């Protein structure tokens, strides 16, 4: 069988399995292994080698898995996940929200703005958008509803704010993108800082406009905090600030790699939590258990995706696709718009990790052939995946938020609430596309 035809069929069947809700790891892994075996069993030159194909197929698959799991960069994943769990159980992430709340009581929509800033701080520690939405949903949404905020604004601010975990370092998506695209993870982290801050400020702008346009949806706060109360709240958030400074400053200053920053901040967070008696042994054990479960799930998905990348390379589908696009003579603008559209559509149905690992084998060769910077493209991809977290009908952050908020807010109302934030995301995306320097100026420092 022709390799390109085999590759196209394998890709098509993988998409069918994913749409049938087969877990992404099983869909990509099983199809890739089957097609790699078929590649050797039914060579393009003709003939059939059913038994002789077993050894080369197994060798290729096992070497691929070993190469991925032997990656130094991949060790940052469980370290950053563990950092997030320790900080959550020690209350370090919650302190950011309460500090922002005390300082923003007089700002229009102050509680919603504080929620977004809290999400930003949580994201800068945990690197997980879904975990951010789940945690801040338990803390911030009940507070906003208690003070008369509309369900749409309260849920929309937290669901959208939770997506900041995809852009603001440390981001698990950036780590996996760097491994698969063979780019510096430290540079990707730095490239996400400015777009993450712009996204955060744009969400705050949405809240301010919403609260000004419809004051009933965000009543003024009745609580008054003294300067001493505000200073105490700000002081309590010093561990989170320290961790963020070490990650960004250490990488930007050239003192740490991303993996080293993960290890250093994990032990600092653990030391602060233990000395300050913020965490018990039971909390620590539970945090490590959750870290092991999440890390194992990510490793299984990443391993299956790596085998899928090997299968794509083996069959030459990516090269064929690049040639096809070049023959179509698409301009760079139309190519980028087509890629953006594909990611936005996939974001309506699939989870971010699955989308990224499914599409990178095809999009990276395309953008490379047109001379685009892969660090900049990584920021664009992660921003698009971030937008997918609040896109109906499968916006993960919305459904996670719906599962943790009590009393329940209908999912339909939540999606209405995130709509203004999604529109602002489109504006930010346009800025990042038109002005690549927004992503690259910090990354160029190392």
From TrEMBL:
<dbReference type="GO" id="GO:0005886">
    <property type="term" value="C:plasma membrane"/>
</dbReference>
<feature type="transmembrane region" description="Helical">
    <location>
        <begin position="414"/>
        <end position="441"/>
    </location>
</feature>
<dbReference type="Pfam" id="PF06808">
    <property type="entry name" value="DctM"/>
</dbReference>
<dbReference type="InterPro" id="IPR010656">
    <property type="entry name" value="DctM"/>
</dbReference>
<feature type="transmembrane region" description="Helical">
    <location>
        <begin position="297"/>
        <end position="322"/>
    </location>
</feature>
<feature type="transmembrane region" description="Helical">
    <location>
        <begin position="258"/>
        <end position="276"/>
    </location>
</feature>
<comment type="subunit">
    <text>The complex comprises the extracytoplasmic solute receptor protein and the two transmembrane proteins.</text>
</comment>
<feature type="transmembrane region" description="Helical">
    <location>
        <begin position="112"/>
        <end position="141"/>
    </location>
</feature>
<feature type="transmembrane region" description="Helical">
    <location>
        <begin position="233"/>
        <end position="252"/>
    </location>
</feature>
<dbReference type="GO" id="GO:0022857">
    <property type="term" value="F:transmembrane transporter activity"/>
</dbReference>
<keyword id="KW-1133">Transmembrane helix</keyword>
<keyword id="KW-0472">Membrane</keyword>
<dbReference type="InterPro" id="IPR004681">
    <property type="entry name" value="TRAP_DctM"/>
</dbReference>
<feature type="domain" description="TRAP C4-dicarboxylate transport system permease DctM subunit">
    <location>
        <begin position="12"/>
        <end position="438"/>
    </location>
</feature>
<feature type="transmembrane region" description="Helical">
    <location>
        <begin position="189"/>
        <end position="213"/>
    </location>
</feature>
<keyword id="KW-0813">Transport</keyword>
<keyword id="KW-0997">Cell inner membrane</keyword>
<comment type="similarity">
    <text>Belongs to the TRAP transporter large permease family.</text>
</comment>
<feature type="transmembrane region" description="Helical">
    <location>
        <begin position="76"/>
        <end position="100"/>
    </location>
</feature>
<protein>
    <recommendedName>
        <fullName>TRAP transporter large permease protein</fullName>
    </recommendedName>
</protein>
<feature type="transmembrane region" description="Helical">
    <location>
        <begin position="153"/>
        <end position="177"/>
    </location>
</feature>
<keyword id="KW-1003">Cell membrane</keyword>
<feature type="transmembrane region" description="Helical">
    <location>
        <begin position="334"/>
        <end position="362"/>
    </location>
</feature>
<keyword id="KW-0812">Transmembrane</keyword>
<comment type="function">
    <text>Part of the tripartite ATP-independent periplasmic (TRAP) transport system.</text>
</comment>
